[in-house]
Structure formats: structure tokens, C-alpha cells
Amino acid sequence: MVSVAETPAQPEEAVARCELYRLLADPVRVRLLGLAAAEELAVGELAELLREGQPKISRHAAALREAGILLARRQGTWTLLRLDPRATTDPVVDDAVRAGQRACAADGTLARVEEVLAARDAETREFFARGGRPLRPGPPAELAAYLAALAPLLPHRRLAVDAGTGDGALLEVLSPVFDRVVALDRASAQLQLAGERLRRRSLENVELVCGEIDGPEVIRAVARALGGDPPEAGEALSGGADVVFAARVLHHAPQPAKAMRALVELARPAAPGGGDGAHARGGAVCVLDYEAHHDQALREQEADIWLGFSPGDLRGLAEEAGLSGVELRRLPSAWQGEGPDRHLVWQLLVGWRGARTSAFTEKAKGHHDC
Predict the structure, then answer these.
(1) What architecture is domain 11-129?
(2) Secondary structure of residue 164 in the 3-state scheme
(3) Distance between CA atoms of residues 136 and 115, nearest Å
(4) Does 193 score more than 90 pLDDT?
(5) What is the phi/psi pair of residue 305, to 5°?
(6) For the residues of 304-364, what is the DSSP string, one character each?
(7) Which of 204, 241, 249, 262 could form a disulfide with 161 if both were Cys (CB 3.0 to 4.6 A apart)?
(8) Cross-strand bridge partners of residue 72
(9) What is the pLDDT of residues 124-164, one digit of tens each?
(10) Distance of CA 42 to the CA centre of its chain
(11) Domain 143-353 classified CATH 3.40.50.2300?
(12) What values do phi and psi take at 229, rounded to 5?
């Protein structure tokens, strides 16, 4: 499209201007421009509004597109048209657009645009008015997409540790949220199941580690995830995870207090001196476990060592291990799945690690079957 020349027009420019005048002399094209300036509309919608045949509207639109006045984009079988905002810098085009809008307003065509837009929504409204898809129990298959959308809202999501990952069910929640995830278990059979889950669900930012919670394999994996060198034997990590999860793990631990200390050691320590900075408090430790119960059958069915923990005992374990700001809550039974432990009372503890404490004086040397 050629703009009005500030100097006397050359023959080629004059011809181009004449072509523009000829293009905009058709009243249908002018009204089409007025509508396209008001809303992005499909060719079929424009044909309905202008009460013209769709082939005719397509021909007019093609000419206006070739002149650089209209923009088009495909959406399936639709071709959507809108005014190129740069086109109105030409006073002739700008005058044509305004004239088209005035004409469409005068005959009521512009007011009918809302009706056309509402018709787009009619089929969708009817579908969901019938109830839409049948209700499926449990979390949605697209849960990872929802979690990925929430992830930017979390201030600290560089690294999560899933202690006792088992078959990796929690990884479907952690992987979409955190940049890196270290998932550990001392049973290689469980890690094989978790690995299959990672493959099927495309969870590519997870490292599976076979070892104890305080074992050297886990320490090295956390250091790698943080981009640093692993500590020397007997030394503590220089950093740590933003969140450490232990979901239904503690009641399997031979020494729950020791296991809790190991979880805390994997969390990022608070910045020295505290203050109001981003790391004024350290990484979080989240422990999901049962309240104290009397179901002895779980010792045989699930190899449980401890029959849950009272809220006071669980809080005591956390605070003695160095967590502050500890919060405890019971979870609704509807959140407890369909396993053999669904009848128990589940509790969630969350606490934050303080400034660095000394490394364990005694590292667990227990064997594992990896």
C-alpha cells in the first residue's frame, strides 16, 4: 500500500494511488473494513453480517489483503480477518474505515456483531448445559499442566527432594513445579516402578537415587542438582533443597528421630543472621504420616513399624530436628486414596529449617538392596 506522497507523485505512484481509490470505491469493501476494524471476524461471519455470499466476501477480502489493508489468520477451517492497524496511517484508508463504520452503525450491522460473537459460544454452552463429559474420580489426567501454571507463583522451586518415593506417585506433582527433583528410595524394585512412571509421564527433570535418606548417594545427587561439588566425608551439604517431602515414610523408619534429622539436613539452611531476605528461613520439610492408631494389621500388610504418631510427638520430632514455624493439620479423608490405610487419620506437618546446624555426628550405615 502506498502512502500519500509529500512530493509530487511520480507516474508509478500515481497509478498506485488510483488503484487504491478504485479498491476502496466499492461500498461492500468499505463496510467490510468498518467491521474488521471493530472485531476480528471469520469470512462466514462477515458474509452473514453484510448479507452477501461468502465467495464474494472472500474475493473482496483477498483484494484488501493483497493491498496490505487486512490481516488474515487460519483457525481450522476458518479464515479470520482484521484490519491491519498500520493501514490507517494512510489518510485515504483511514477515511474509508471511518466511513464503513458509520454506514454499519447506521443500518444496525455493527450492533449485530455481538450476536455473531455470541453464536460462536452457543454450541459450547449447549454441550456443557447437557453436563459435558462424565465425572471421573481422582485427580485429572492434565494435573501436570495445572501445576506448571502455578509453579511461577512459588518463590523457591529450584530443587525438591522426595524421600521414599516408592513408585513415584508424588513425582507427578513435584516434577511440573520444581526445576529439579531428586527422588530416593532404598528399594531398587520401587525405583524401577518410578522409572517407568517417569518415562510414561515425560517427567524429565527427576533423578532417581537408590540409597538411605542420609546416605552418600543422596548427598551427591542433591549437590549435583544444585550445580556444586559433593561435600567431603562427614561434611554437611553447602546448600540444600527448597522442599523435602516424606510422604508416609516416617512410620517405616527404625529410628524416626534420626530419619527426621536426615530430612532436615537435606533442606536448604537459612541465611546466617536471618533478616527479611529471600532466604531468611531455610527450606521446608513436609511430612505426611498417620496419627496414632491401633490397626496392627498394617504391620503385616504394609510392613509398618510404628502405628502412627500423635500430633504432639510428631511436632516434637520436627522441632528437635531443627524445624521452626511448624504447622500441623489433618487431611480430609477424601484425599486419602483407596489403599489399605484409607481408614486412618492422615496428618501433614510442615516446618522450616533454621540456620545451619552441625552435620550428623553419626551417619547411618544401614544396608540396602540396591
Answers:
(1) Orthogonal Bundle (1.10)
(2) coil
(3) 35
(4) yes
(5) -95, -45
(6) -SS--B-HHHHHHHHHHTTEEEEEEEEPPGGGSTTSTTTTSPEEEEEEEE-B--PPPSS--
(7) 241
(8) 81
(9) 888 778 876 676 777 788 889 999 999 999 999 999 999 99
(10) 32
(11) no
(12) -90, 145
